[in-house]
C-alpha cells in the first residue's frame, strides 16, 4: 500500500522518497565524533518506512541499539530540478516533525566498513512523520522542535541552528535528483540522540503547530 502524507488542512499527497540529511547541527556532529561535513551527507528512506501519529516503531531483531533522532521535515510540493536556494521556498508544500529512527549499532558497523547506511536507516517503521502543516500557515522559516521520551525532554533546538537551511538543502538536492511532489526531507537532528526500548512513548513536537506521538514495540 502506497503511503500518503496527510496535511493539517485535510489535504493529502502520495509520499515520495525521504531524503535525509546527516550531521546538519554542529553539536550533534560533535556527539557523533565528527566535524560538520563540508558537503551534505545524504541518505534515503523508502516511502514504505513511514508510520503515522498513534502507530508504533517496531524494533528490528537485528539491532540492539535503536535511536530516536527528532527532525524538522519539509515536503516538496512541486517537481523541481536545478533550482536555487532563493527559489526553494516556492517548491515546499509544508513542514512537519519526524523521527529518523536509526539502528546505531548497524550504522556504526557500516561506517567502519565504508558500507551504505540503507539498512541502519531505512528499515520498516523507521520514518514516523506528523501531519504536515501547509507552508501558507507557517509564519517563520525557523521552528522549535522537541523530543520527549516517556515524558522526559531529550532533544530541543531551534532550526536556526542548522548548518544548512531547508532552502539550501532543497537547492542542493535538486542539483542531484529530480525532486518530485510528495518527496520528503528529513533535515537532520540536533544533539541529544539516544536509545529507545520496547514500551517507550515518544512525542516529537513542532512547537506551535503539530505533534507526533508513537510507541515502540
Ligand atoms: Mn537523522
Supply database-style keywords.
35% strand, alpha+beta, five-stranded mixed β-sheet, 217 residues, 4 helices, Fumarylacetoacetate hydrolase, domain 2, binds manganese (II) ion
In short:
With 217 residues, the chain is of the alpha+beta class. The chain has 4 helices and 18 strands.
Q: Which percent range fits the helix content?
A: 10-25%
Poorly predicted runs: none
Overall tally of structural domains: 1
Main sheet overview: 6 strands, mixed
Structural class: alpha+beta
Order of helices and strands: EEEHEEEEEEEHHEEEEHEEEE
Strand content: 25-35%
Rg estimate, integer Å: 16 Å
Shape: globular
* CATH architecture annotation name: Alpha-Beta Complex
Bound molecules: manganese (II) ion
What strand line-up does the widest sheet have? 4-3-15-8-9-12
Instruction: Determine the CATH superfamily.
Output: Fumarylacetoacetase-like, C-terminal domain
Just give the CATH class.
Alpha Beta
Q: For the record, give the distance between the C-alpha atoms at the N and C termini, rounded to a whole number.
A: 22 Å
Instruction: Count all strands and give the number.
Output: 18
Number of helices, counting only DSSP H or I runs of 4 residues or more: 4
Can you tell me about this structure?
The protein is globular, with a radius of gyration of 16 Å. The protein has a single domain (4-216), classed as Fumarylacetoacetate hydrolase, domain 2 (Alpha-Beta Complex), CATH 3.90.850.10. The protein has helices spanning 26-31, 104-113, 118-122, 166-176, and strands at residues 4-6, 12-14, 18-22, 41-45, 50-51, 56-57, 66-68, 70-76, 92-99, 102-103, 127-128, 133-134, 144-149, 152-158, 184-186, 194-195, 201-206, 210-216. The mean pLDDT is 97. A hairpin with a 5-residue loop joins strand 1 and strand 2. It is built from four helices and 18 strands. Strands 4-3-15-8-9-12 form a six-stranded mixed sheet. Strands 6-18-17-13-14 form a five-stranded mixed sheet, with no helix packed on it. Helix content is 15%, strand content 35%. The chain has 217 residues and is an alpha+beta fold. It binds manganese (II) ion (MN). Manganese (II) ion binds at residues 20, 69, 71, 100, 186, 188-189. Manganese (II) ion is lined by residues 20, 69, 71, 100, 186, 188-189.
Amino acid at each position: 500500500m502506497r503511503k500518503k502524507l496527510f496535511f493539517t488542512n485535510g489535504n493529502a499527497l502520495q509520499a515520495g522518497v525521504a531524503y535525509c540529511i546527516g550531521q546538519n547541527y554542529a553539536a550533534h556532529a560533535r556527539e557523533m565524533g565528527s566535524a560538520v561535513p563540508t558537503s551534505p551527507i545524504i541518505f534515503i528512506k523508502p516511502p514504505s518506512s513511514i508510520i503515522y501519529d498513534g502507530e508504533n516503531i517496531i524494533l528490528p531483531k537485528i539491532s540492539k541499539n535503536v535511536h530516536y533522532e527528532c527532525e524538522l521535515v519539509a515536503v516538496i510540493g512541486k517537481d523541481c530540478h536545478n533550482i536555487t536556494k532563493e527559489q526553494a521556498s516556492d517548491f515546499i508544500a509544508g513542514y512537519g516533525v519526524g523521527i529518523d529512527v536509526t539502528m546505531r549499532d548497524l550504522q556504526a558497523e557500516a561506517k567502519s566498513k565504508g558500507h551504505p547506511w540503507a539498512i541502519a536507516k531505512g528499515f520498516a517503521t523507521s520514518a514516523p512523520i506528523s501531519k504536515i502543516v501547509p507552508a501558507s500557515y507557517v509564519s517563520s522559516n525557523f521552528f522549535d522542535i522537541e523530543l520527549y521520551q516517556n515524558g522526559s525532554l531529550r532533544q530541543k533546538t531551534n532550526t536556526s541552528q542548522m548548518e544548512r537551511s531547508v532552502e539550501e538543502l532543497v537547492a542542493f538536492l535538486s542539483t542531484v535528483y529530480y525532486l518530485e511532489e510528495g518527496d520528503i526531507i528529513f533535515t537532520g537532528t540536533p544533539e541529544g540522540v539516544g536509545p529507545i526500548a520496547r514500551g517507550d512513548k515518544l512525542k516529537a513536537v513542532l512547537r506551535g503547530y503539530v505533534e507526533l506521538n508513537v510507541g515502540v514495540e
